[in-house]
Amino acid sequence: MSVAVQDSGATTTELAAEFTGSTLFQIIGGAAPAALAAPANGLALMAMIFAFGGASGAHLNPAVSLMLLLRGKVSSGKAIAYMVAQVAGCVLGALLCTTLIPGVSIGQGLGAPGTFAPAAGLSNMGVFAWEALMTAALGLVVYGCAVANSAFKAAAPVGIGVTVTCAIMAAGAYSGCVINPARALGPAIVFGMSMSSVAVYVAGQMAGGALAAGLAGLLHKE
Length: 222
Description:
By secondary structure, the chain is mainly alpha-helical. Helices cover 68% and strands 0% of the residues. It has 8 helices and no strands. Helix 5 (124-147) runs antiparallel to helix 6 (156-171). The longest helix has 25 residues, at 76-100. The chain is globular and about 50 Å long.
């Protein structure tokens, strides 16, 4: 995973990489059984970064793109284009699950692949906090491994994948630990989840991306 500084608009190749990587990430991560969600998502993200990092930087997450925009590593036009490609890829991934997995249908609601819900008793503020904190943790690892002047860039996909695995192990039982607005919106659109509930997740995740940007500025003197 590599990130160019102050680049201009996104190229067709970059958008295709973000779209394709997000599609595959949605299918693999969403279709995995709940008991295997943590390793499936962590390993899938690691693999997608290895596959598409050279083409687009493999953001694969609007919160990561926001973090890099706020740190001045991508232009606003490129960040927005990446976000659109990421969400579109996750929508396609969720749609493909209706063909690949028996019994899964459009508008199915909770229980469909990739859908999520908070634990009983967890408030909207609790969901927001979990998603923001875990997304910020992911963003800090992305920045520290793949963006800052680091000796660990070659191992960045592994570090990022391990972070996602650990985050889901910690927060999955509470918020579902989606930590990716595209992964939240894709199945929500296809399977008809409550958008008011999804909005809390997306808000927390984007806040986490912004928090990671602020902390990265304090931690890394570039």
